[in-house]
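In response to reviewer comment 3 from the previous cycle, which asked for concrete evidence that the modeling workflow produces usable outputs, we include below a single protein chain processed end to end. The sequence was submitted unchanged, and the resulting structure tokens are shown without manual editing.
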Amino acid sequence: MKTTPLHHIQTSALLDDDSPTALLDLPGLAAAARVRRVLVKAENQRPLGNFKVLGGMVAALRALARATDIQTLEELQVTAHLPGLICASDGNHGLAVTAAAERVGTRAAIYLPVGVSANRAERIRQLGGEVIWVQGSYDEAVLQAAAAAASGAGLLVPDTSEDINDIAVNDVMDGYSLICTELQQQLPTDAAQRPSHLFIQAGVGGLAAAMAQGLRGNMREPRRLIVVEPVSAACVALALQAGHPVYAKGDLQTSAQMLSCGLASAPAVAVLLQHQASAISVSETQLQAAVSIMQNHGGPASTASGCAGLAGLLHVAADTGLRANYGLDEESCVLLVVSEGA
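The workflow returned the following structure tokens.
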């Protein structure tokens, strides 16, 4: 019988549909931004409707393997009394961890800040997860989930950490790397036609870091890696400036709910610093406008979180000084990621 070693497992081995998500060429967006080309990776096409499935399921199953010394997925699926799983989430990571728990027949407890929509919470419940509401921000949910795990309530599967060597967070980012594995086959073979710029949204920075790491050798040099955040929750920008995670002040309120984070992830920040990423902040008006602009130019239906990269591109494209600072011109090829469906 074929077995799947858990320390190597990737999400493609876990899902019924492991087809690559589409890479869309959207000339209307290129014209709007006055660049040669805009390519959009449609992560809304993933099972569960967002990229988080790539990290949460992988990290959760690897955590169970470490805790039980069970080495294969097949063994996990027939083992009774597995530890439960715990995580904090704005919705999508919690959904992925719940899906992993459902896959092997254990329980999941997901700590959600009260600002998360009832819709996102209900999706977690429908997969069998327990939703625990937290009065406060995502960062408060992170603290409460960690405290519950420390008390023995279950295994913590975080997607952020202040520990640069956190194994679970690095597993999450390893799961996200499947996006870049697919892009290696999808991007033009002609180096001159490859992306020169990546505008990538960030909450705690995990997706941005995975993209920065995974796209080495698949972008045109000099490549520009630009992290895009809401003005009200620009924790990655603070971290890049300081050289380590720093708490963002304020209420962190934003229509881009999946990006409402006050402290960047230390493992992600380390990668972004290594790859000389920069960060820009965009307004609520720009975030909300990007949703309709994306769809009106042939892109997927998404959210302010899912289209934040486009908001960043259009912000830079409309400003002569920013265009010059980021080397954006009529010959640029831009890569965006739509990180979730509507």
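The CA atoms of residues 103 and 110 lie 16 Å apart. We consider this sufficient to address the reviewer's concern, and the full set will be provided in the supplementary archive.
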